Amino acid sequence: MQKMLTTARAGLLRARYAGLVAAVTLMASPAFADDPTNISTGLNSITTWVKTAAVPLGILAVMGAGFAKFAGRLDWPRFFSVLVGIGIVFGATQIVSWLSAGATGF
Q: Could you tell me the CA-to-CA distances from 35 to 31, 32, 41, 104, 105 in Å, in that order?
């Protein structure tokens, strides 16, 4: 008897899930993602936001790494890895443009 109730509940849940999927599918509208200028604008705004958020974090990272190195709590390779990581974060746009300079057809 218990197994029949569990099976019936599973069937009811499947029916609800199928109804939900059908409703979401019918309510979907096209994304209009064909225009590359919208994508470029969105990516540029994300890049600007990340850079504005990364500047204070980069300053704190350099200060923290410098203080830790001064206190003798940080070795040279880790100190330079912090500096290289910050360089990659702020130079990401230039690095991508260098790598994609040879790409054509886009």
A: 10, 7, 11, 18, 16
pLDDT tens digits for range 76-90? 999 999 999 999 988
Cα angle 75, 78, 82 (rounded to 5 degrees) comes to: 135
- Please check whether residue 65 is in contact with residue 74, taking contact to mean a CB–CB distance below 8 angstroms: yes
Residue 100's identity, in one-letter code, is S
pLDDT digits (tens, 9 = 90+) for 31-60: 655 566 777 888 888 888 888 888 899 999
Residue 29 vs residues 14, 25, 26, 33: alpha-carbon distances, Å: 25, 9, 8, 12
pTM of the model: 0.53
d(CA 89, CA 59): 13
